[in-house]
Amino acid sequence: MRNDVNRRMVLAARPHGMVKDSDFRMEEAPIPVPAEGEVLIRNLYLSFDPTQRGWMEDRPSYLPPVQIGEPMRAGAVGQVIESKNPNFKPGEIVQGTFGWVDYLTTSGGGIMPLTKVPAGVPLTAPVSIFGITGLTAYFGMLDLGKPAAGEVVLVSGAAGATGSVAGQLAKLMGATVIGTAGGPDKTRWLRETAGFDHALDYREGNLTQRIKEIAPKGINVFFDNVGGEVLEAGLANLALRARVVLCGGISSYNATEPPPGPRNYMQIVIMRARVEGFIVLDYAPRFPEAVAALGKWIGEGKLITAEDVQEGLENAPATLRRLFEGRNLGKQILKIAETPLPRI
Predict the structure, then answer these.
(1) Can you give the pTM of this predicted structure?
(2) Fewer CB within 10 A of the end CB, N or C, for the chain?
(3) Which residues on adjacent β-strands are paired with residue 71?
(4) What is the pLDDT of residue 291?
(5) Per-residue pLDDT at 4
């Protein structure tokens, strides 16, 4: 990348169906100059998450939509290049919501406030296990799902960044864990590396029956990242007073028509299940708790993470598509620069 311009990948059009390269436009501008109280940051790594597809739609949501002509919003890790803020020094590694740009200036506020990344932490960790996806798994599974020893937990989209962590957390609580994913490589990774008890390839069909064969007494916790037919398969196998955690619905994020609701929703009534959706930003005051716990389990070798790292800001649209094409294993990340200053 050039060091004398600031590249900005902005939203050029509202997507219709699958995200396309033409939905974005690369612009070049001068590198911004920090005002008093601000820092200049050079982006290093960008986070890619299914929720970004929703941010591109012009509709009410938990965050305002990205506007046409604005850089695409994204969590990121960067390095402070210049500082007019006494709380930050050049060379420090920081994280926040920076967007698809090479450089930006900020005073430290925003959706995810600017925070320092401690020395010794891998550069990708703040957009991976310590980022939104890891935090989502932690609070969604432990606060809402509350798996207990001896229970059976089903996680859909289990080879993704959130699902893979959520399933491992359920294992740490003593549950038997079933994961669904697409393809033999992902299901093999879930069993052999992530330690899931069972992994089912949803592409093979007959998912409802295969879950029933593994868990004839039903599922106590269902952590759903997918929606659609996979959601219906999970609902068909609920145990009495099961907990269903609705984390996402990636199967319909690029649909051109609103998806139908689950046809077997009465299973929720019959099995007296509790269904709850959540947004991880609601837990912001407790983020340090989650980071400390996740870090401890990683240090003890009890939690495994996977990262899919692509390179080049120009490849941002294609990298986002990887999530919806099922091409990523674990956390999807884009590297856009090397650290230009000695790291503090």
Answers:
(1) 0.94
(2) N
(3) 10
(4) 95
(5) 82
